[in-house]
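Instructor's aside before we start: the two examples that follow are unrelated to each other. I chose them only because their records fit on one page, so don't look for a connection. First example below.
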Amino acid sequence: MALPWAFLFLECRASDGLTFDLELLRQRGLSEELAAYFRDMPRFTPGNHIVSLTINGSRSGTVQARFLNDGSLCIDTGLLEAGGIRLPTAAASESQGSCIDLLSSYPQSQIQADPQSASVTMVVPAQALRPAAAGDDLSAYDSGGFAAMFNYDVSMLDTRFKDGSSRSWTALTEPGLNLGDWIVRSRQIASLGQQASRLNALEAYAQRTFADQATVLQVGQIQMGNPVLSGVSVDGFQLFSEQALGHLQQRRVVQGIAKSQARVEIYQRNRLVYATVVPPGPFSIDSPAPVDAFAELEMVIHEADGEERRLTLPASPMAAGLSGGYQFGIGQLRHSRAASPWVLSAGWSGSVLDGLEVGGGLIATDSYQATGFALGAQPWTQAQMQWSLGYSQPLHQERGMQSQMTLNQQFAGGWGAGLTYGLQSQSYQDLQQALEPSGRLEGLRDFFSVGLSWQGTGLGNFSVGGGQSRTRNGQTSSQANLRWGATLGQVSLNAGVEWSLRGADDRGRLLYMSASVPLGTNRRLGASTRASGDHYRSSFNLREQVSDTLGYRLSGSHDSHDPALLPSVGVSWLAPFSQVQLDYSKTGDSARTLAANLRGGALGHAQGITLAPYSIQDTFALIEVGDLHGVKVDTPSGPVWTDRQGRAIASRITPYADNRVQVQPRSLPRSVDLANSLGIVRAGRGAVSQLSFIVERTRRVLLQTLQGDGPPLADSSMVVDANGSFVTMVQAGGLIFLHDFQEEERYHVTSPDGSGCALEFTLSDSPDPEQYYETTTARCHAI
């Protein structure tokens, strides 16, 4: 390390620059060689050092940097990769460990190595930074690879009553493989209960992105989407642009309030698409199954006491805006109890003017046609308007029309407002309805919703909203909600109320209030009250995150219909191989509920099988940290830990983007260093990326030295290697710390008086990997 106090002994001479007063150094016990090494500037000692890397003001993580015998930084390919700097053309043929002359390619670059802060700061011109692929150029990203995967999400809800019981199971499974940029997936959901059992095959398809054309091909049992019309399930194929994929595979967020530990089911077109178990209170579900944004969702909440509540969620075709791009597909209709005609779907959307987007599409069979148009605009400052219009024309039937308009406005002071109105004529039918006339008037005829929000203030976040919908059979229902949340110091407060009306009948009012305060760093105490009509329940809970992987919840509740205190306990475990959630609650005098959830993924690859606590997506990465077990790695999908083979999975990699993967150094054995703790994954869709962190086992040794059989070595003596390169200095009491001991190296000590000796010592053949350094006695014999 540098010796900044040595510069107290500088003489400034105009002709010779900065020099040390050698006589004063000798009086202080410092050698001339040490003065020569640090004469020009503070510098690192030769060898490898862990440093913090900053590029153009942005931190790029912790890396291992190599310094040469003169203390200068060796810029190699690993350092450039960590900093996101492109490899100079002149250095393309250099070997992996060679030093690269960056200044010859980018002369205006500035490089500063600071040993006191253990940091390296680089300022390079913009053209030296590695650019992201622009626009439709997707060919610059990694591609290829092979792996098989399996995702699972299994839930169980067991309820016991005084005079009976019920148990239900739900399993959402997804086997598949990635092969040469092809993505093969099969999604299905099974529901098993005492009343009925279901098995729904959601999708089974093969998909590939052709990077040069920025085009995606999907073939099999697919949900054929359309940018402006309701999609259909077919056996067939479709082509669409890469940027349109997110719009065609939307995952909608569903929110509500559960009175008790409840099972929530989500249906679309009378088919179960997702089910899970939620705790009492407000909940939010981000459905992992893609759903059609142009079709309604029905949410069914099964409470622990047997109560069943249903809520229809209107279609939200413009919620994600117009993504841009095209779609074209042909296939034979699935899930139809009547005919299964061939279907053609085509559409396009994109920007035509600044702030103006349009889209159009059609769906056609031999007996049905539908066309649609969509518009997105910014009519004035901080406003966003979206409008869609669709027509349907079944054979020998009346033409129908549907339309929806959404207007969102942001105001000063954190205020925002939104308005949505949708209208559907009595004769409008999507393809499924036209082929299977039920004789019943189903679906919404019209609906509207309005909302007002206020956030970003000291009083917290506030929102109020309401809406009304009318079905084709004339039934009218209305909902309204009011929500508020704030953090006052370390106290969190939340309150909400929902009203539900159908016709002239009051279907109920649901009120929720909660507060929580911290009890230490990872523990919180909370209290809440839920009320519905003349029935209320109050509860308290204690939550603690014991570690990165384990958390628990203890709670008790009081019901207005039962004076007894009803206990509840829950445990969540983020294991390296899965996520586990267990909840038990007593819901009455002789009633109790047990809920369990197990979810995760498994990946089969050339090196074996690796398990993951998260669902494996279309694009992922296999991570290797040598053969180290239990190392924590931060990934875009969340933290993971390496298995006994040193492997883990980054389950979700965003295609055509930079994805940061960071090894947590504190989870490494103390005898291990990484060449670079930060990795960047740049992968095309469907690629099986592999990211290996180079593990270097470092031996650190603390020597208690003696001059032969005599006294300890004099402090401030200089330790050098066999080549005479500076290594470190002798500290008070004759202590020498070697931060990177090399077994084949021979170490010598040079005293301030110019005499020298050779160090001799013996170390254990099996060092403890959890010890930061080893200790032993060394004798220095004169040479």
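Example two begins here.
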Amino acid sequence: GVNTAHPSRTGDVVVILSPPYQFDAAAPGQAISDSVFFGQHGFMPDLVDLDANINMHATFIAGGPDFLAGATVERVRAIDVAPTTAFLLGIPGPAQASGSILYDALAEGEHLSELTMVSISDYHAQFAPLSASPDSFEDENALGVSAPIAGAAHLLPWINHFREESRDASMFVTASDIIGATPPLSAFFDDMPAIEMMNAFNLEVAAIGNHHFDVDYQWFIDLMPMAQYPSLAANIVLQEGATPVALPVDGATPIADTGAPWAPTALFEFEGLTVGYIGITTLDTPDVTRDGALGPYEMLEPVPVVNRYAEELRAQGADIVVVLAHEGATAGTLSEPTGPIVDITDASIGVDTVLGDHSSQQVLSLRDNGTLLTQNPGRGLTMTRTRIVVDTRSGEVVYKSADYHLPWNISVEPDPIVTARIDELSSDIQPILGEQVGVAEGPILRSDNCGGETGRLCESLIGNVIADAMRFTYDADFAITNSGGIRADLTCPPEDNPDDFCAADLEPNAITRGQVLGVLPFGNVAVTVDLNGAELKEFLEAGLVGSPSESGGFQQMSGICITYSVDLEPGDRITNAVHQAEDGSCTGEEIDFSEGATYTVISNDFSMSGGDGYPNFSERMVTLGILDEVVAQYLAGDTGAHAAGELVTPVIEGRIVCEGETCPEATNP
């Protein structure tokens, strides 16, 4: 009931009195005394009890030509003043404003209609709550506090709260990767729970993400009928001359305009308001999915597609045009971002707002062309409320603003239906995924040796474990795997979380089957290919193209140690490469990169098939085991490559060394 609950600034116990008791107006020397004046504090903000001399409601008076003379507004909160003032000034509201615009107090209020859109980004079926710090401390040894945030059962009440704040139309929308790269609670069930949860969230429209094609286009098409919302992608169309693929439901046919079984746009009618949506998918999709994952479909440049459909939607009567884009900002600030989605937004014509995705960056930016661009970090860490106001007399958009919010779990009652469903899913797979397969000497996290949280900058402990498991299990010369395929921490967290697959009584740094599946959720298969020295160098160089920036293609490896320079041109950056010695040190013989040398290289089918920009050797692949099972069996000692019960003790060995002034700084050089 109060707007002051905060993970680190609210006390463990909050006392709110019941009338007529009060905290102030005390008489000296008396534990309890009568109140002698009106308007005391210490009660719930909506409390009115005139008999007890209590009224927590203050008086709000507004005047001027923009206000409706003589109007009485029943419910005005302090948090409504800033959004209303910003609207009257014609400027975006505060970045974290949570109140409403007081239309009933405005002279033109009856002629205004507001669309509220609540959005999240890159959700990836994050059913369990995450942990985040509500404060940042720069002082050394300062005590930081972490608190639970988001998670499906707590996120839904937040979504509903901001939808209920709207006087008029409200929608929950997303450009997320809804399926693909999901935790075990969804991945184990072929991602059907991911779609089920979006249905429970009352999702009304979504753009298609690149991870929707993680298996292939047919996998996504087979899942589409489960969704109670349309999935949009205007720039994924049937190749010329290809045969259309129909949805696996009676009466479903491909969209005539694109030849695809998903629509390019969607139109929604509300009282006095028509809203058109365009879906866009990142052009990176063919590079970050398996070879052939798009099947008979191809990608189109987004800007011409957006502008074409924006014009068509306007012709169909859309008052508001929204682009749901699974494409993101990659740098810059909250209000001045840079990256592909910024370029698309700046080149758009006739678009009111673009909701970005795909990269984990917070964006609230009103661009020079009048288009509002927003984006959230992934997995529900933040959510954005976007408001578009239309003058119903002219049909013109007269105002647009957005604010973002952190969905802390504190004081939020989890949705009981969502909670029950998550408990049911957990119960079904707990006996399998809760099985301990190993234990480590210390935490083995997703982050790398340069502090990159997603492990895409430098050598990482988790990358070394995975690569070692692959190489030793199949006795290959070298193992190389892309960092983009590593999605979570390997060891169980120190704090008990009832929503994960780590029982509270497990020993510290235990590794369960569920943790391994969370690390490697794509269902990739381990494969070997015999490469000559020149092909090996080409394969290694492909993983270094994006350095020193974060890149999903950045490789983790075993059996080989390389040194590379970011000052050299991509494709020719490796300056030294040697075999790992038997003790793991990088002191072995020099690698022969000539065509006369031959090496057996183990990787995953995604990378060996050209994913993340690697050369495509799919025609020569020998398929082995499913990658997460390979790692789990290695840790459990089932393959003999790692002794059962032996501590997992990875170390940073200098397998990947960067040279140059712009190299990421290693913490354990």
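The chain has a mean pLDDT of 90.
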